From TrEMBL:
InterPro entries: BUG, Bug_dom1, TAT_signal. This is ABC transporter substrate-binding protein. It comes from the Bacteria. Belongs to the UPF0065 (bug) family.
Amino acid sequence: MPFVSRRNIFFTLAKASLALAIPSATSVAWAQDDYPNKPITLVVPFVAGGTTDILGRIVADGLGKRLGRPVIVDNRGGAGGNIGAAFVAKAKPDGYTLLMGYNGTNAINPSLYRKLSWDPIQSFDPVSLVARVNNVVVINPKLPVNTLPELVTYAKANPGKINFGSAGAGSIFHLAGEMLAQQTGSNLTHVPYKGAAPALTDLMAGQVQMMVSTIPTALPFIKANQLKAIAVTGAQRSSVFPQLPTAAETGLKGMVVDSWFGIFAPKGLPEPILSKLNKAMHDVLADPALVKVMKEQGAEPHGSTPAELAALLATDLKSWREVIAKAKVTLD
């Protein structure tokens, strides 16, 4: 029997342990090819009931059907979406934790909060754009106005009596309200809420008098005559409310504010998984039934490549940084 030194035995055992501890390239590739083999979590960084949540649930259902695994919506609201975004930023980049992002969180918050624990570019890999959504100016039906110019006239004649709600301080809806006040010289008081749903509830109750909201969130209440829509703030009229003028058409040329929504993953997502998710998203957004549901909600489905979503984010980061600096709004 040959002599085996203790040193040789040690190195043999060490190599065996290392081989067990570090997965081989083959095993990693297999894990990617096998994706997904368990449920996926889609984090919506807002409470239930808002547009991000509505679209997130539509996307989750579609993705689940195409990927063959459940996609579970996890509402992690708070801090204008920062809590949910931070959770995803710290998650393992394996495709099992995704973020339902929107330009309010991903493109606006970085200019509002100086101490974010995540970075809009360095913390996430863009997967695909989901939809663009027009925003609508809604008022309490008891307010004696029917158009945006009439609202401005009323606000000037009744200084301090028009409170506008928003989904949170620094949200795109807060900034849209501030934009309206600046461009018209109106005295409007901002009242922030922890999401769009509670803000709309108080608007219907008359606690606030107006709000800028995404159409999907406000639509059921407009249809039920619990809210009155007087204008949209997108670049074009909405297919849901073709009779409503844009804010620009009423004379506010600089007030063009819409919302976009997209899927993001933690930074470092393997390319095979990113490609699989992107393809699945395109399949979801090509489904006529899903497109119909989104359009009925006031959303325009838009898929994209990861690079296209990255470019859109970069453009919005710059433009909103300038708007926020001019308005001198910070939340730290």
